[in-house]
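--- STAGE predict ---
source: upstream dedup step, 1 unique chain passed
mode: sequence only
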Amino acid sequence: MVQERCCCLPLEVCGLTIGLLDAIKNLAFLGLYIYFLVNVDQYTKEPSKSGKGYFINEDTKRMFIAVFCIYIVVYVGLFLAAIFLIAGIMQNRHKFILPWIIVNFINLTLTIINVVYLVASRQEKVEELKKPGPVIALSLILFFGTFAIVVIIKLYRLIRFRNAV
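--- STAGE serialize ---
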């Protein structure tokens, strides 16, 4: 029997690594958005006389709170999907892996749309569009996101095949 491999490692090890790194990333972003939500009031204070710091009005504050709440819900879902991925790999249950594939495919698609929108909305600053930053960021997101999804789909099929036999 030929063992499935990814990057010179068994497919299960690669899948667990992807799941663990994804869970850590999602927890970090979750903490970041919770921090922003808790500290949003510091940005609504009157600007200092020195001109340092940020000042936003109440309408913008409410919009930020709504956006941060949405991101918190999204990252809780992404974190839970990563936990299900890890549990599915460890318990050889392919149905636990499927939520991660679906959620991360949607997340990758929306991230690409968001990056393209951000680049397209800045067309008035033509000089900034000539910089390679957005193209490099989009390329890295696309490469690593697609790589992770392909590896996990391959692992999903392997575990599903093992359970069918």
